[in-house]
Description:
By secondary structure, this protein is mostly helical. It has 12 helices and no strands. The chain has one domain.
Amino acid sequence: MTYLVAALLGVIQGLTEFLPISSTAHLLVAGRLLGYEDPAFTVMIQLGSVLAIMWLYRAKIASVVSGIPSDRDARRFALMLAVATVPALLGGLAFGDFIQAVLFRSLQVIGTALIAGGIVMLVLERFRPAPSVLDAGHTPLGRAFAIGLCQMLALVPGVSRSGATIVGGLLMRLDRPAAAEFSFFLAMPTMAAAFAYQVMQVGGELAPERAIEIAIGFLAAFLSAALIVRPFLLFVRRSGFAPFAWYRIAFGIGVLMSVPAG
């Protein structure tokens, strides 16, 4: 039964990681409902989603890595991601323990963050600045850093890493697909670093049974993320982010209403 729960949570993680609806909130709520509460598991299976996005964009990654020694555009792309990753890394090192010990256990924080993020997205859908960046790879470094600052807010459960970076991208005048793709690219170094940090924290204490649970969740997250990314981009081009904003608000209200019931 525990392995089935790990697989289910992995599917939830993969389907929600790159949508702006907070995979962490969904995993924490689902974990409570299923009696499986483990913040380390929540963070570690996210690497499955990261590997899925790396697989889907493997040609781009190979081009950048091979071109760093000689290609100015490749070096600039790598620098862009590095600059955008720094704020979240520093924030995680400074506040990570408090966030996992306190905020991850607060349904009030999760529900409020979901609702607030949904409202922000609705406002931006209506009043966002006219886009001037149509390719995520051409995001100016200053704007990339600003998006990275927005990503730092996603340390709070319920904010959503993809939601925060997409909102930051829209504010920095990226068009919708470019903002979504920038979020995908930024997930690679950020979530890989979060995974490495968790391994250092608990790696030596992992029992074989727990390692199997994480491996199952990891694989389920990889497969479900690989299936959702392309349809998500097509949907965003056609319909924007408002449907996700309304879903966040409804989900957040449901979370807050569940608090009095325990």
